[in-house]
UniProtKB/TrEMBL annotation:
Source species of the chain: Escallonia rubra
Annotated GO biological process: defense response
Name listed for the protein in its UniProt record: NB-ARC domain-containing protein
InterPro entries: At4g27190-like_LRR, LRR_dom_sf, LRR_R13L4/SHOC2-like, NB-ARC, P-loop_NTPase, Plant_NBS-LRR
Pfam families hit by this protein: LRR_14, LRR_RPS2, NB-ARC
A single GO molecular function term of this UniProt record: ADP binding
Keywords: Plant defense, Repeat
Domain NB-ARC residues, every copy: 168-322
Annotated Disease resistance protein At4g27190-like leucine-rich repeats domain residues: 820-890
Domain Disease resistance R13L4/SHOC-2-like LRR per the UniProt entry, residue ranges: 515-689
Keyword Repeat: yes
Similarity comment: family membership: Belongs to the disease resistance NB-LRR family.
Amino acid sequence: MAAEVAAAASVLGAASQAKTTFYDPLRQKISNSKRLEEVHEALKYAIDSLVSIRDELEIEVQNHKATKRPAKLYITWVGKVQKIEDEVEGFETPYGIQIKKSKYRSFSSRSKLSDKMKAKASVIIHLLEEERQFRSILVDREPERVVKMTPPDIKNFPALQRALEQRLVWLKEDEVKGIRVHGALATGKTTIMQNLNDHSQVFETFVVVIWLHVSTGGNKGNISTPELQRAIARRLILHIEGSNHVDEVAERIRDSLKDKKYLLLLDDVRQDLDLHQIGIPESQGSKIVLTTTMGHVCNSMVQEVIKVGKFSEDEALNMFQYVLNFPNLSDNPHIERFLRKVVQLYDFHPLRIKLAATAFKLRGPGEKWWREGYSNLIKWSRKGDHPMKKMYDLLQDSCDNLNDAQKNCFLYGTLYPEGTDIYEDCLLDCWSAQDFIGGDDDVDEILRHLKMVSLLEDGALKRHVRMEKWMREAALFILSTNVGCKYLVKTSDALQEPPLLAHWKDKEGISLADNDLNRLPDRPDCLVLWTLFLQRNPNLIQIPASFFECMGKLRVLNLYRTGIVSLPTSLSNLICLKVLYLNGCSGLVSLPPQIGELELLEVLDIRGSRVSCLPPQIRNLIHLRHLSLSVTSSSGGETNPEDCVFPYSEISRLPQLEELFIDIKCRDRNKMLSSVITNTATMEKLKIFRLCFLDEAEVVIEVVAATPKIPVPREANLITFLGKIEESLHCDKFQVFIDCEISNPQIPKPFRYNRFVRYCNGKWRDPPISNILDKADAVELFNSEEQFLSDFETDGMNQVQHCLLESCKNIRSIVDGYMNCSILGNLERLYMKDLPKLESIWMGPMNGQLQSLSKLKTLVLIKCPKLIMTLSHGVIQQLYEIRHLEIRECCGTEDIISGPSSAGLDPGVLPKLRKLVLHDMPNLERICPDKSLEWPSLEKLVIRGCPNVNEVPFTKSNAMKLISIEVDRCWWERLNWQELQVKERLSKLLPPVTFSFSHDSHELGKRHLSRYMCSLVAMLMLALLINFS
């Protein structure tokens, strides 16, 4: 709060001292301007200046967002700027109209517009002057209270749930400062603590919750104190780059936590910890919870202890069946017996049970497989005496049930550091690059299968996966026991020196990720190496010139977030390389010419580097299908779009490019977007085009079956860009989603359309929106603010053939008859749903709009409670082409066709109507005023839930093509029939009587239905008695 107050003071400090005069010349110019054109020019200059300053400040906010957040007064200022920007944009249309008019004929309206513009200019100058008072727009960012971990649900496992609840009780007790949870390996200790981390009581009780992995992999001890300090500093958003001494960092941590009520969660502690040395203070109300396999660890800091052991038999069975996910498996008594034997064999140990269930899941639900699987478990259980041997053997059995590609993909996951959430797309790229993937293998299907059998789990982030800690350790153990181990994995070990050269030889996969490496060896012998992971080694600045000389078979090279400043010339030796990650290498300023010799390269990611230009040799990458890069200024900063460098000349020459991801770091995004899309429009194989901005807004264009799918956030700068999309793409097909996610259109599929727009939560009058809508042939509008569909400032949307309106709370009518132009002249299908204020289809006179709705074939209205009358005399004559009319749940509707009688109405109206559906309208009284209409094409009639309709508008000479009628039988019998011949003719079109009374019950209620059934049963019994006698 102190920081916020200080920032507020700095924002307003100088404002009270003296009036700012910096913008007085601009103010004077606007005030003295007499001509509308001069005022418009000055206003344009002022708003451009304001927006440019806003964008520069926003870049500063983004550059420091990891540790700083914008001050509240700055946020308010940005909101004002956004509002005035929108308001100034609104002057463009009336200004354009006035410019076209004679100066003398429009003097009054020009003067009024000029005064309005001057008033807005004054507001802009005031905002510019406010910005001059800013001394600081940023304040220190507070860490999140809790970082959610989305753990497994333990409600069905009482032993784990009890341990969690006990910890929650102890956290409330003042005398309890520390809690230890200990138990054997993989008994659920970490799962309990993850649930504790995410618990609502913890969120409400503590100011900050800190989770620390205190050990990694198979190490016997804890990770080093500096590593623990770095992890705490990251969590508390502390800058400690210049603090190299342990005591100095400890003091920084101590200062940050001393006044906070914190909860410290320490996972997998293997030795006593000196919390004072780390910098953890003793703070009032703060608590420490730790997990360990050792009952003596950290005795001095704990007051309460929980021991986690094996499951009960019922819990073990529940877990086994939960992992299997085979419905009704326990109904088979033979398999149920095997289930109990398996959980007993593995002594009700949670992880062993999970691995055993995984092995059986791969085999399937058949009893034969269960017998064979149980025999294998017996065999594995008799081998070896390693404390984790049974788990390793179970995992080996699971791997034996995978095919070669699945097994190799699973084991490949061990190259990633422990606890890593792996982005699925990157994992799939790495798998695809390996020799163990054959032409018939589908990597997406392999990933789905490994997740299905629980060998990989969903990560905390969307589209991420992870390998559980003990699953990874067991997999590494399997690899290490194989003769000639092919992987070298040294991750998160704080390594500063690389492994000895002898350890590099004959390896197919090497992972040294998440370390502190400051050098690499010269010319390691890696003739069979396929994958090299060096990501997140920030101290690795230089790669030896000869490093890649003996890596001719390398497929995947990951240098993400290393400190490298260049790539060696030996890069040209990587002739088999398919995946290269250089993203986050902020010191890398260029790619060497040798990049062009990587002819098999398929994936290249240089986002977050300082590479601004691609070398011309990049065009030699004829197999490149995915490219990710950042677009910045030529100097590497974020400036004007004129200075921004987009290497479209080189990119456009990549013949196989399918995916292009671009981070844009320019001030004027609209101009940059236009340039980027225009210059990539001719790339025929491009399928996914993602643009990401500094403020994390994102445009994604997906091309599916030659149709670009474009979701656009509801954000002013992007809205103004919309008008350029269809023209820039040069395509006959597109799907645009504004302020909504990509999903399938709700307009029924049988109707074909190529240019589709879904627009949510907006004003239809935004000019760019109107331009897009004019080019669409199918439109869906949700939650719009307008009153008439004709309120669009468009050319009438006369290309639209299919339209859906849903949840538009203000819309009163489709056509405003007082407008002078026709709209929706080609509309064939109109669906309207949940429109609470809709009063009519057409409001006002019919003159001058003879083409509006003239081709409409299908009209569907659902839940429009204020719609009293559906079709007026004028509208019904306009709908000459209508084939399908359907009205449902419009509780206020009284008439379908209005008027006291059909006098003056052509009997031949609705000549093509084939289907009429009326559903659930309790106040409907009439379909039409009398029976004069011919209904020449009507084939199907459906009327249900309309109890107040007393007659149907048919005679013995009309509706002669009617072949099907669906109605409530009781209602049909109650109708007024002036001619019994008509009833007899039409009754033959009803379906046969059945005993399905669902619709009758809707009309009559349970009491009437019971009477009807009783009477029917009585009649049947009487008939039987007569026949019997």
